[in-house]
Amino acid sequence: MDLSDLRIFTAVVREGSVTGAARRLHRVQSNVTTRIRQLEADLGVALFIREGKRLHLAPAGQVLLDYADRLLALSDEAREAVQSPEPRGAFRLGAMESTAAVRLPEVLSQYHRRYPEVAIELRTGNPQTLANAILAGELDAAFVTEPVADELFEKTPAFEEELVIIASADHPAIARKAGLPRNMIAFERGCPHRKRLEDWYARRGAMPERTIELASYHAMLGCAVAGMGAALLPMSVLTTFPERKRLSIHRLPRGEDRLMTVLIWRKRADSPKIQALSHMLLAPSPR
Q: Whole-structure pTM over 0.85, yes or no?
């Protein structure tokens, strides 16, 4: 049973005869008759009660008609969705935790207002996990930090983040050879901010005595306030933290303090949904 069989079947039902269906579908009558008999043989039931040249739906035919109408309507909807230049359907989007928490609410709110036919499904993770999910077909696009494998992905610049080290309010100033935090607070391995902080220690010929792994930025901020260690994170994250005054902020040297977040998607896997988001990111912000 395929869609063309169902179209022929519904045409015979609507026209009430093979002759009328053949005329409507621009087919010869023998072809319509053959396809109906093949469909009946495939299903193992009689779909019509035959009275001379007239055909009336059999009980099994009445059951099939409901399914046929729904399947054909869904097929037409799918064809229209694929061919339409307008964004629509599910948009499986990935993002790092900090990006999802701070940068995306306004962006996705604006996107939803412009494209209400798109249903966004958001998933968080580190850049490597998100990139692998795109390659596996589990995500359509994701916000990750550079560097990006240009041979595998297309990309659009999204957000430039200023990175800072945060610690408790009474933590001494961090100098090159003094005041280095004893404990580091970070996400699991694979997080670009953790890698940047590890590199920061290494360039100073040191390493933390202990690394505390946590699963959210607000937990990290709370631990920093309590004096449990220092963390490196985007300055923008602090805008969501009400206890900011209980933290000390230590800025990084020029060249170490910036990280670019980009929107990536698999090469040759472009779509109207991705292009719409990409154009929003590239558009100048309203003043």
A: no
Q: Which amino acid, 255? A: G
Per CATH, is 89-159+260-282 categorized as 3.40.190.10? yes
Q: How many helices (H) and strands (E) does the chain have?
A: 10, 11
Q: Give Cβ neighbours of residue 250 (< 8 Å, ≥ 6 apart).
A: 164, 165, 166, 167, 171, 173, 174, 230
Cis peptide bond N-terminal to 147, omega within 30: yes
**161-258: which CATH number, 1.10.3210.10, 3.20.20.70, 3.40.190.10, 1.20.1250.20?**
3.40.190.10
Tell me how far apart the alpha carbons of residues 127 and 104 are, in angstroms, rounded to a whole number: 16
pLDDT (tens digit, 9 = 90+) per residue, 63-121?
Answer: 999 999 889 888 877 776 677 778 888 899 999 988 998 999 999 999 999 999 899 99
Angle at which helix 272-282 crosses helix 104-114, to 10 degrees, equals 120
Coil, strand or helix at 217? helix
Token digits of residue 142? 């994701």
